[in-house]
Amino acid sequence: MIDEKDQRIIEHLTRCSRTPTSEIARFLGLSDVAVIKRIRKLEQRGVIKKYTVVVDPKKLGYNFVSLTGLDVEPDKLLEVVNLLKGRDYVRYLAITSGDHTIMATIWAKDNEEFTEVINELKNLPGVKRVCPAVVLDVVKE
Q1: Using CA atoms, how far apart are residues 85 and 119, in angstroms rounded to an integer?
Q2: Which residues of the chain have pLDDT under 50?
Q3: Residues 40, 63: one domain?
Q4: Does the residue 121 lie in any domain?
Q5: Residue 141 lies in a domain
Q6: Which of 81, 98, 127, 131 is least crowded, fewest Cβ atoms below 10 Å from its Cβ?
């Protein structure tokens, strides 16, 4: 069970995963050791799955970011997912129950590369439809 202190630790780490445990401990009125133990338990229980860095794709030269829905034949779903998992241009991949069978975040350097990626996706076995939506601005991460 996650208590209020665990929740507040998670909030701190979500805002900045590099927040020193001493700072979190001071804020919560706990010892450094208590915070470290709580974080380890959250990691062991799978509540905290990983620590990561959020980058700006444009600063890395990726001028096209797309949230792309793919409609896939049910019998080809896992095959397409496995193919997409190996593509460097796919930065996020999920099987969904919404409007599309698969949702992927795609990064491309320019319009030409983006068009090539979309054409490649359209030609994957079992893909019926590809619905890209180019991200114009990120309002909240």
Answers
A1: 17
A2: none
A3: no
A4: yes
A5: no
A6: 98
